[in-house]
Amino acid sequence: MPRAGDIYIADMGYQGKTRPVVVITEVKSSDTRDLTTVIPLTSSMRGGPEEVDLGKLRALPRRCAANVAGVSSLPTSALTRRIATLDDSTFSAIMDALRAHLGL
């Protein structure tokens, strides 16, 4: 079961495109919908406040960033393979950027 802070390869549903994503919510057995909220990772960094630089992760070929502007929910079945788990401080930085992006 995906957990917050896990990085998965996800089927994003368009033209068979898969990409790495950070899981930000966990599915509970009591949830009525089997959806997981994720933030996509990108290697096309622009340096804006909506990006959290993750550096070069061992599981990925290039330096990347979490793009909080791309937050979305996917069926949990779209998460095909866990490739890493972020440390608590990095995950907290992503959540802080998400809150700032959403104005919360």
Keywords:
single chain, mainly beta, SH3 type barrels, 1 helix
Textual characterization of the structure:
The protein has one domain (6-102): SH3 type barrels, CATH 2.30.30.110. A hairpin with a 6-residue loop joins strand 4 and strand 5 (63-67). With 104 residues, it is mainly β. It is built from 1 helix and 7 strands. Strands 1, 2, 3, 4, 5, 6 and 7 form a 7-stranded antiparallel beta sheet that branches. The model has no long low-confidence stretch (mean pLDDT 90). Helices cover 14% and strands 40% of the residues. The termini are far apart.
In short:
This protein has 104 residues and is mainly beta.
Alpha-beta content class? mainly beta
**Which descriptor suits the 3D outline?**
globular
Share in helix:
10-25%
Give me the oligomer status. Answer: single chain
- Give the uncertain stretches in residue-range form: none
Q: Work out the number of β strands.
A: 7
Give the number of helices. 1
**Main sheet record:** 7 strands, antiparallel
Order of helices and strands: EEEEEEEH
Radius of gyration: 13 Å
Straight-line distance between termini = 28 Å
Instruction: Calculate the mean pLDDT score and round it.
Output: 90
CATH architecture: Roll
Produce the secondary structure layout.
Blueprint: E1 6-11, E2 18-23, E3 35-42, E4 51-56, E5 63-67, E6 72-75, E7 79-85, H1 88-102
Antiparallel strand pairs: 1-2, 1-7, 2-3, 3-5, 3-6, 4-5
